[in-house]
Amino acid sequence: MYINGEWEEASSGETRTIINPYNQEEITTVAEGNVDDAKRAIDVARKTFDQGDWPATPANERGEIVYNIGRLIRRDLEELASLETHDSGKTLEESRADMDDIANVFVYFGGLADKEGGEVIEPPIPHSTSKVVREPVGVCGQITPWNYPLLQASWKLAPALVAGNTLIMKPSEITPLTTVKVFELMEEAGVPAGVANLVLGPGHTVGDELAKNMDVDLISFTGGIETGKKIMQAASSNVKNIALELGGKNPNIVFADADFETAVDQAMNAVFFHAGQVCSAGARMLIEESAYDDVVDELVNRTKRIKLGNGFNSDTMSGPLISADHREKVEKYVEMGKEEGAHLAVGGKRPEEPELQDGFFYLPTIFTHCKEDMRIVQEEVFGPVLTIETFQTTEEAIQKANNTIYGLAGAVFSTDICKAEYVASKLRMGTVWINDFHPYFAQAPWGGYKQSGIGRELGVQGLEEYTEVKHIYRNIQPEPIGWFK
Ligand code: NAD
């Protein structure tokens, strides 16, 4: 753990073993922090914010440090990518792409540091001036999930630092390794002691303390809805600012006039990327009835050819699931789908190859003949499981796509661009892709409608989450009012 610029073991001396989900081999052990460690880190972050120089450091200087973190990530990209593949099981190609995106996040926010000025307002009162300035929120607690360990951390670390906050980061206890490494790089880039602190450990102790502690001003969380609800409750202790990035059940709408090859290819990537363990996975396909048979045949054929394996092998298309528990959760959903009457077209079980038996592998799975109200259609499985429904009219596609508790992302494939734009305007989601799936980048905001979350990360909006807005009014001709003489 990294507290007040020092690398530390947990105060209890406890450790946790980190395993590779591909073969369950031990990678390393890390400190297992507890509530006392979290409190100590919060005290440091509080003092550093209240008494330290960081909030008043010129924004361009903070920006330069954050920019330099991005450069160091580029320098160590291969090492970081390899660490992420060991820790999460994703393919090396995916990890490299993640690291490239992560470097871009730090570079983008570093550059934005001194571009986001305040505002001058024309006041309705003579002889006065009125301005709006942005200030750091204060002490930020940050909690991340296991599926994109360092990527999710970068979306929080970079804007928090640039805006002049101090912070305590708690990565997922399952995949903390790249976050630990980036704290080394943050030290090398010149982040002062006490500004960014790292506490490792479980969510229900360390995470809960960050969410409820009275000295934390903002809690930013990425993870599941049920945890998000607990965090909202805990954060009510001192009415913290909250930012929540939660789950999704993201519709992928394919019209019959879509380019066939593009739609099928993108649909595969939408759902099976990182074994479906992606908040924005296109796990719910809606295909126009007249194109249904052709699209489904091609999807099933391609799905049978997906090569599972070691993320370090260049021919591996998909790695394992993250853990035994998570695979069991996916298996329960598949059983539920069968009981609900969905038709299992491919997959639906563990692979049989001997070399895959030590990892948490699960075959890419497609259910056809799905109905809107099935739980397999409504709930986030977070695994390589695609459900397919049909629609006949544009309005039916929109209605079905919007009919979940989620509102993270969705896509529409059509060569009729007016129709595609119309559908995009009607989807109640934070991101809509037209003729594509998954692109996100540092420059554009990311976040959810409905139960997919509160607030936005990335883009200018992602920086604003880490600022408070202050209005300063000045009377330039002060004189008595004379009301209470
Ligand atoms: P999770 O909710 O189980 O855990 C996320 C983090 O919260 C972990 O660090 C965990 O230790 C911590 N935590 C657990 N209980 C806590 C508590 N009571 N108080 C405070 N912290 C607690 O989620 P997960 O299984 O790690 O990640 C998968 C989920 O994350 C999926 O639902 C996925 O959709 C979501 N996700 C969303 C986005 C997004 O951008 N919207 C991105 C990635 C993942």
Question: Brief description of this entry?
Answer:
Helix content is 39%, strand content 19%. The protein is built from 15 helices and 20 strands. Nicotinamide-adenine-dinucleotide is lined by residues 143-148, 152, 170, 172-173, 202-204, 207-208, 211, 222-224, 227, 230-231, 245-248, 279, 380, 382, 408, 448, 453.
Walk me through what this model shows.
The chain is α/β, with parallel strands linked by helices and 485 residues long. It has two domains: 2-246, 3-Layer(aba) Sandwich (Aldehyde Dehydrogenase, Chain A, domain 1), CATH 3.40.605; 251-434, Aldehyde Dehydrogenase, Chain A, domain 2 (3-Layer(aba) Sandwich). 39% of the residues lie in helices and 19% in strands. The chain contains 15 helices and 20 strands. The strands form five sheets. It has a seven-stranded mixed β-sheet, with helices on both faces. A six-stranded mixed β-sheet has the order 9-8-7-10-11-19, sandwiched between helices. The chain is globular. The model has no long low-confidence stretch (mean pLDDT 98). The structure holds nicotinamide-adenine-dinucleotide (NAD). Nicotinamide-adenine-dinucleotide binds at residues 143-148, 152, 170, 172-173, 202-204, 207-208, 211, 222-224, 227, 230-231, 245-248, 279, 380, 382, 408, 448, 453.
